[in-house]
C-alpha cells in the first residue's frame, strides 16, 4: 500500500463520526432539556391541582349560597346573633363552610329588610403551606 492511499484512508476515518467529547456535550444538553421539561411538568401539575381545589370550593360555596337563599328570612341558620354560622363549621371533605349574617336596611326606612351574608369556604392546601379560601357575599331580602 502506498503512502498516499494510507493517508486517504486515515483522513477518511478521522473525518467520519463524532468524538467522545462531542457525544458527552450532546448528552449533557439533552439531559438539561429533559430536566427542565420535568420541572415544568411538576409546576403545571401543582397549578392544575390548585385550580381544581378552587373550582371545587367555588362550587361548594355556590351550592351553600343557594341553600341559604331558599331558607325563610327568620330561619335560625340566618340568625345574626349566632355568628359565624354554623358552629362548628360544616365540612365537605377537606372543605370547611362558614357564614356571617348581618342585618341591613336597604330602603332607608330604619327597618332591617335584608340580610348580608358573607359565606367562606376554606381548606388546607395540598401543595405549599397555609390555607386557601373562597368568599361570596350576597344579600337575602325579606320578601
Describe the structure.
This protein has 143 residues and is an alpha+beta fold. It has one domain. 45% of the residues lie in helices and 28% in strands. The protein has two helices and four strands. The longest helix is centred in the N-terminal third of the chain and has 51 residues. The model has no long low-confidence stretch (mean pLDDT 86).
State the distance separating the first and last CA atoms. Answer: 110 Å
Please give the number of β-strands: 4
Total individual domains: 1
> Structural class of the secondary structure composition?
alpha+beta
Strand count, sense and closure of the main sheet?
4 strands, antiparallel
- Quaternary structure: single chain
Q: What percentage of amino acids are in beta strands?
A: 25-35%
Rg: 33 Å
Number of DSSP helical runs: 2
Low-confidence stretches: none
General form? rod-shaped
Mean of residue pLDDT? Answer: 86
**Strand order in the sheet with the most strands:** 1-2-3-4
Percent range of helical residues: 40-55%
Reading the helices and strands in chain order gives HHEEEE
Amino acid at each position: 500500500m502506498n503512502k498516499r492511499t494510507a493517508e486517504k484512508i486515515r483522513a477518511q476515518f478521522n473525518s467520519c463520526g463524532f468524538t467522545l467529547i462531542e457525544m458527552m456535550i450532546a448528552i449533557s444538553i439533552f439531559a438539561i432539556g429533559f430536566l427542565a421539561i420535568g420541572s415544568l411538568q411538576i409546576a403545571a401539575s401543582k397549578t392544575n391541582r390548585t385550580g381544581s381545589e378552587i373550582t371545587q370550593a367555588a362550587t361548594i360555596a355556590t351550592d351553600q349560597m343557594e341553600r341559604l337563599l331558599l331558607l325563610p328570612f327568620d330561619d335560625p341558620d340566618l340568625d345574626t346573633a349566632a355568628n359565624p354560622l354554623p358552629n362548628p363549621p360544616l365540612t365537605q371533605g377537606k372543605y370547611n363552610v362558614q357564614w356571617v349574617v348581618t342585618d341591613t336596611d336597604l330602603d332607608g326606612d330604619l327597618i332591617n329588610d335584608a340580610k348580608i351574608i358573607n359565606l367562606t369556604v376554606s381548606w388546607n392546601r395540598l401543595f405549599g403551606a397555609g390555607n386557601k379560601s373562597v368568599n361570596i357575599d350576597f344579600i337575602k331580602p325579606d320578601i
